[in-house]
Amino acid sequence: MESLNLSTSNLLLAFSLTLFAGLATGIGSTIAFLTRHTNTRFLAIALGFSAGVMIYVSFIEIFFKAKISLVSVLGEKLGTITTTCAFFGGILLIAIIDKLVPSFENPHEMRKVEELEKIPSDSSRRTSGLLRTGTFTAIAISIHNFPEGLATFTGALTDPALGISIAVAIAIHNIPEGIAVSVPVYYATKSRKLAFRYSFISGLSEPLGALIGFLLLRNFFSQFMFGIVFACVSGIMVFISLDELLPSAQKYGEHHLSIYGLISGMAVMAISLLFFT
């Protein structure tokens, strides 16, 4: 049976990986200010790669471990049904969160570095609107990052190698989100420091989500709770991949580049799991 390793060293590793994944929004903001042109081909491949890692690990590793735990407690039939329901429950949770975010302020809106050079005229009304957009984008990303933080944290507690894979995948997908926050804030304030600060703070919600989730669930961790949480995490990661990562990858580059990245991510994840099994 699988169980969560709640030793101090594992908790620190899990939290560190979650912090790394969250703060990748700051990397996106830094890229926006240090480069003059967006490398769309790289982002298309990278986002596709991230989706491949998350989809593969969700179906092959996380869902499988969730089912083992729930079957051990509930039996084969009820355990399988419960795992499936929890999987779609995770999808429903992240879908509701996504629905609550207004479309014009949704962090899925891709931005390019070149936009920084097209600062609009000094209109207080327009500036206020841009700052509002940047602020709400940061808030929207923060809300999205809560379940992502829990996914990374729980995965790392179960298996450090699995946690590293999830953290890297989520970190990659947080980079363009950092750009999405920085661009409108910089438009509105012309302050690189403030734009970076907004982007950086939005990423902190990921470790915060992990911490809150852990504090709420730590007294209830059992084989049953582990199975439910892991099945939900599997659903959340699949939804993020299909709703955010792949569409974003295709917006940044050619369709085939995102698919090549997707397949590469799956292959790398498959090979790494074979080595660590």
Task: Write structural notes for this entry.
83% of the residues lie in helices and 0% in strands. The protein has helices spanning 8-22, 24-34, 40-74, 76-100, 124-158, 160-189, 192-217, 223-252, 255-276. Helix 8 (223-252) runs antiparallel to helix 9 (255-276). The longest helix has 35 residues, at 40-74. Mean pLDDT is 77; it is low at 121-126.
Short description:
The chain has helices spanning 8-22, 24-34, 40-74, 76-100, 124-158, 160-189, 192-217, 223-252, 255-276.
Q: In percent, how helical is the residue content?
A: over 70%
Give the terminus-to-terminus CA distance.
15 Å
Q: What is the average per-residue confidence, as pLDDT, rounded to a whole number?
A: 77
| Biggest sheet character | none
Radius of gyration: 19 Å
Summed up, the domain count is 1
Order of helices and strands: HHHHHHHHH
Report the total helices.
Answer: 9
Given helix and strand content, the structural type is mainly alpha
What is the beta-strand fraction?
under 5%
Low-confidence segments, ≥5 residues, pLDDT <50?
121-126
Strand segment count: 0
The shape is globular
List keywords for this structure.
277 residues; mainly alpha; globular
Would you spell out the secondary-structure blueprint of this structure?
Layout: H1 8-22, H2 24-34, H3 40-74, H4 76-100, H5 124-158, H6 160-189, H7 192-217, H8 223-252, H9 255-276
Helix pairs in contact: 1-5, 1-6, 1-7, 2-6, 2-7, 3-4, 3-6, 3-8, 3-9, 4-8, 5-6, 5-7, 5-8, 6-7, 8-9
